[in-house]
Specification:
The chain is mainly α. It has 2 helices and no strands. The protein is 91% helix and 0% strand. The radius of gyration is 13 Å and the shape is elongated.
Length: 57
């Protein structure tokens, strides 16, 4: 997996964490849920990339 994709997956997880925190700060449940979803999506993509890399070598 390319470095650019790894960085993009990490950035998605970080963006989700930021959204979640902003939602907590403003009391917006919608923003919290959206952030949680983005964070989970990024983490899943990172895990899948690690699994692919493990089987590649």
């Amino acid at each position: 997996m390319s470095i650019a994709k790894k960085i993009a997956h990490k950035a998605e997880a970080v963006k989700g964490g930021t959204k979640k925190a902003a939602g907590r700060g403003t009391g917006s449940r919608r923003l919290q849920a959206e952030g949680r979803g983005d964070q989970v999506k990024g983490n899943i993509k990172q895990a899948a990339a690690k699994i692919r890399d493990a089987f590649k070598h």
